[in-house]
Amino acid sequence: MTEPLTAAPAAGANSQNSPVLMSTYARQDVAFVRGEGAWLFAADGERYLDFGSGVAVNVLGHAHPHLVEALTEQATQLWHTSNLYRSPGQERLAQRLCATTFADRVFFCNSGTEACEGAIKAARRYHYVNGHPERWRVITFEGAFHGRTLTALAAAANPKYLEGCGIAADGFDNIPVSEPEALQAAIGPETAAIMVEPVMGEGGVRVVPAEDLQLMRALCDEHGLLLIFDEVQTGVGRTGRLFAHEHAGIEPDIMAIAKGIGGGFPLGAILATEKAASGMTAGSHGSTFGGNPLAMAVGNAVLDVVLEPGFLEEVSRKAARLRQSLAEIKDRFSDLVLEVRGEGLLMGLKLNPDVPVADCVKAALAEHLLLITASDNVVRILPPLNISEDDIVEGTARIARALSKLTVPAR
């Protein structure tokens, strides 16, 4: 696995600021050309352990043979026809998602932000077709992240992301999470839904307590609201359950998913009960590329693996091992690491505020380990769900080596 690669990097690939790409990312100065399992290979032949999974996307690692086979076979048959015609792949994947979740209806799109926007639209349309067009506002929570489109940014209400984008879209009441009185006070005659991530990944790997999610469900039932879960990052096994809300023993009315369901191929979906989907009538929504045959082949292949007997139990077992190792790291580097957060294989280390999280990610990269930043000075740890025990040991050892190179500045 350590043989040098012959592929040359593309022009500008070894520069964080390519002259031909918009400067919207602070890219790390490494270009990957091949992946295998939990490992990535750079253009110079060096290999890196991937504890970021493309930001929780590559749930089965890189170049998983079953996914490669499914995509290759479909690519030789049919790529795209649009949603003007029936799609056997869509129907099969939708049936499987409905059979394993609360949902009765599915709409396929291409990304998490599209799924979140569609979920908001579905909630508003539900009240509209049921005679309450005044109910269009959605309660959301501080620190959330629902995507980069203008409506998704307005839903999360993060000033940093909204800067320079004009007046934020109306219709959202953003409140602190885990404050029951604020939640109840936010409900009014115009409220249509409550929207929440069971684990706020981008927002600092903050787990929303089960009792808070249960209260949201109860309030929605009491006031005739719809409960929307954004499981773009937490879904498809990431937390040890197929979906994170299962830990709380409740079900939403609408759910947005993406990332893991495509295993690396762009794929998102809106899942809903029959009632919640009642406003999504012919012509009310659409997507040119959503649910194309290539995406459906890969999505079905992902479910083939994730739904295998014992797979999710194995994820939980590996997650317990990872958490234990991270707790040991916290004890060893108590001046640097303040808290271990997360659920399943969506973990985070809350760092000392005097140590920028970007410094930790950079130090890890020097150890040939990929980590992801998050808000609240948290480093995200997102290995593939099928990662080996040996790679967990190796990855946590590299985290420890990276932390050993950091210091807390003297005050």
Automatic annotation (TrEMBL):
Catalytic activity of the protein: N(2)-acetyl-L-ornithine + 2-oxoglutarate = N-acetyl-L-glutamate 5-semialdehyde + L-glutamate
Cofactor: pyridoxal 5'-phosphate
Keywords: Amino-acid biosynthesis, Aminotransferase, Arginine biosynthesis, Cytoplasm, Pyridoxal phosphate, Transferase
Origin: domain of life: Bacteria
InterPro entries for this protein: AcOrn/SuccOrn_fam, Aminotrans_3, Aminotrans_3_PPA_site, Class-III_PLP-dep_AT, PyrdxlP-dep_Trfase, PyrdxlP-dep_Trfase_major, PyrdxlP-dep_Trfase_small
Annotated pyridoxal 5'-phosphate binding sites: 112-113, 145, 230-233, 288
More info: May also have succinyldiaminopimelate aminotransferase activity, thus carrying out the corresponding step in lysine biosynthesis.
Family under the similarity heading: Belongs to the class-III pyridoxal-phosphate-dependent aminotransferase family. ArgD subfamily.
Protein name: Acetylornithine aminotransferase
Lineage: Bacteria, Pseudomonadati, Pseudomonadota, Alphaproteobacteria, Hyphomicrobiales
